[in-house]
Specification:
The complex is a heterotrimer, with two copies of chain A and one copy of chain B.
Chain A lengths: L5 H21 L4 E2 H5 L8 H12 L4 E6 L2 E6 L8 E9 L2 H13 L2 E2 H8 L5 H9 L3 E7 L6 E5 L1 H6 L11 H6 L26 E3 L13
Antiparallel strand pairs in A: 1-3, 2-3, 5-7, 6-7, 6-8
Helix pairs in contact in A: 1-3, 4-5, 4-6
Chain B lengths: L1 H6 L15 H7 L7 H10 L10 H17 L6 H18 L11 H26 L18 E9 L2 H19 L10 H12 L6 E2 H4 L7 H20 L3 E5 L6 E5 L6
Antiparallel strand pairs in B: 2-4, 3-4
Helix pairs in contact in B: 3-4, 3-6, 4-5, 5-6, 8-10
Classes of the chains: A alpha+beta, B mainly alpha.
Chain lengths: ~220, ~270, ~220
């Protein structure tokens, strides 16, 4: 190479860079420097060439990136959003989720244990997560009882979604009976609570800790 | 050249002459190597080694007819379209050799020849185009697409749907479910009439003494819950037995014990 | 855009070019200008941007090429010899398939009868199937003639495979037109149809029926 003029040298460089561009573009997987070297002219400094190529593409929409000892072109990270698309899908709530949600609505603030007591089956954390993701329930605080379980309550989005002005609009026992949702043959001691409508914590609730992830210590 | 190429294939089996045919012969006989009569004509024309525009259509027609004749002499079946072309070329030949009468409405020999030339040129042009096309830098052969495509990633988010009715139905449903699971009906022993009758028959046996019903049933009346059904069924059965004339009943005072005995057999 | 300073304009330009680079680079299939436009800032001139990008990459190992109204990055043609893949399944097309393909390319829209007329021999249905399976030809519609035969034309994938921007780039097209050899009918000195590039149907074409499998009623 030392015998080459500057022009020749630059021509060789450009040619090598073109070859690397084409190889890296067309390859179905990242390529390591050694296997790239076999396509270049003799005496080529593959490491230097790759760094040159990398710096040339540094500001472009595609970058040359190193993955372990291999190289590949990748869409620039800040443009990743172009390659993502959000799609919304309307899906009906499962029965388990509906039941859990309704218990929280009527019995709030309710702990997971209380929900399970009404439902008679264990409630998966996934169901609560789903309802929180839907934005319909929230963690209110922690009950002042052993284990300090998290208390759940509904959100304003819940009211909004179900067309309620306040939780007090949820029908009571007589209305549920009247609408046929509850049958007549009920034990006289069956009670349906008046939903608790206050965002403020109750006497038996503690606030959540600032970094509280809402994990019940005695569960999960 | 193409003839020899095809000769190496299974079509060799067509020959009924085991002798090695001459090179010229091979080309002519291998009709199966051609893709139709036009292909054969084009091949024959090519061998005139002149521009297609300058070929002698008459000579070409004669060569084709001679070829078909050779093939038929060798008792090789010739596909119908080759024969149709042979007939057409024979007609063309006659038109070219016989001067056209002024009243003749048929196309002239020259026009027919031009038509054939056009078709040959067009086929050849398409062949050349095909090879030019295949010689282009083709995708996946000389030119390459992105090897590691980064497909658009679709993130699905669920928008959950539920109506107030669904919610209330779910709530009411599980509250009711809670109630019904607490209710477990009490298992009662019930004596059927038949059962009571069988038992009475057995207990009274052949006893002609007055014995109270309760003492007969003493063993069964231990469980308070069962007393009512046992007494009721036994009393009803005893009335039935009286009606049948099998036992006598006697009660000395209101709410007093009920006595029963076997009726004497000689007094039916 | 007129209110922008030169610096701002150049920044917007570079940003748009980066977005195009990322999108086109990421895809192995050509993308059409309109769908690219949705990713660019308002008022972007997509045609101009693509030409700018094309000229920037003209000397590189990867080039921006146009295929009908779509665009794609492809390795530079002159580097093909370096990239030839041994594992590439090279199943040569039969002569019948090749001829059929070129007749459709140069004579489109063409019916099966027209293809057969040029070749002077019946075309097996398998040949057309094979070309359709390769993605190079498609059924366009039905010719408004007795029997309503299906018309065939080439696809964008055909252009992409053979490195053609438009059908006008078909090799030797001008010469063929000049010699009248593309005329379907005799005598050849009359009208010379061009290969018909337009996805829209011609006057003598009907659309395919919705459940049309493209079977010619009078054949097969």
């Amino acid at each position: 190479m030392s015998g080459l003029s500057d022009d020749d040298r630059s021509e060789v460089l450009e040619r090598n860079l073109r070859v690397l561009e084409a190889l890296l573009f067309a390859s179905s997987e990242p390529l390591d420097a050694n296997s790239l070297l076999t396509y270049l002219g003799e005496g080529a400094n593959i490491g230097e060439l790759l760094l040159t190529l990398q710096s040339r593409y540094a500001t472009r929409g595609v970058n040359l990136v190193q993955r372990a000892d291999k190289w590949a072109f990748r869409t620039a990270e800040d443009l990743g959003f172009l390659l993502r698309r959000d799609e919304q899908e309307n899906r009906p709530l499962s029965r388990a989720a509906l039941e859990t949600l309704s218990i929280i609505a009527y019995h709030q603030p309710a702990t997971r244990a209380e929900i399970e007591e009404v439902r008679g089956v264990a409630t998966g954390k996934g169901t609560l997560d789903l309802l929180m993701e839907a934005g319909w329930i929230r963690m209110r605080g922690r009950r002042r009882t052993p284990g300090r379980p998290v208390t759940y309550g509904t959100t304003d989005a819940f009211l909004d979604h179900f067309g309620l002005e306040t939780l007090g609009d949820l029908p009571g026992l007589d209305e549920l009976k009247g609408s046929g949702l509850l049958s007549g043959r009920l034990p006289p001691n069956l009670q349906i609570p008046l939903p608790f409508d206050d965002a403020a914590l109750r006497d038996d609730e503690d606030p959540l800790d600032p970094d509280d992830l809402g994990t019940d210590e005695d569960q999960d | 050249m193409r003839g020899t190429e095809f000769m190496t294939t299974a079509q060799t089996d067509w020959f009924d002459t085991p002798a090695e045919p001459a090179a010229e012969d091979v080309m002519y006989v291998d009709v199966g190597g051609y893709e139709g009569p036009l292909d054969l004509l084009l091949d024959l024309a090519r061998r005139q080694k002149v521009d297609l525009a300058a070929i002698s259509v008459l000579a070409l027609a004669e060569q084709y007819l001679a070829f078909i004749e050779t093939v038929r002499e060798k008792r090789i079946e010739v596909a119908a379209d080759y024969l149709v072309m042979a007939a057409w070329l024979a007609y063309l030949k006659s038109r070219l050799m016989v001067p056209q009468a002024p009243s003749d409405d048929e196309p002239s020999g020259e026009m027919l020849a031009a038509m054939l030339q056009f078709r040959l040129k067009r086929l050849e042009a398409m062949r050349r185009a095909a090879s030019q096309l295949m010689n282009r830098p083709r995708l996946g052969f000389q030119v390459y697409a992105r090897g590691m495509p980064e497909p658009i990633e679709i993130r699905r988010t669920s928008l959950w749907e539920a109506s107030l009715y669904d919610l209330l139905k779910a709530y009411a449903g599980q509250r009711e479910r809670g109630i019904t699971t607490e209710y477990s009906p009490i298992q009662r022993t019930v004596w059927s009439l038949q059962e009571a009758r069988d038992i009475l028959q057995r207990l009274i046996g052949d006893s002609f003494e007055w014995v109270s019903m309760d003492s007969y049933l003493a063993d069964y009346l231990v469980t308070p819950a069962e007393r009512a059904t046992i007494r009721a069924s036994s009393f009803a059965s005893s009335l039935e037995l009286v009606r049948l004339g099998q036992i006598d009943l006697r009660q000395t005072e209101t709410f007093g014990p009920l006595f029963m005995r076997r009726r004497k057999a000689d007094r039916p």
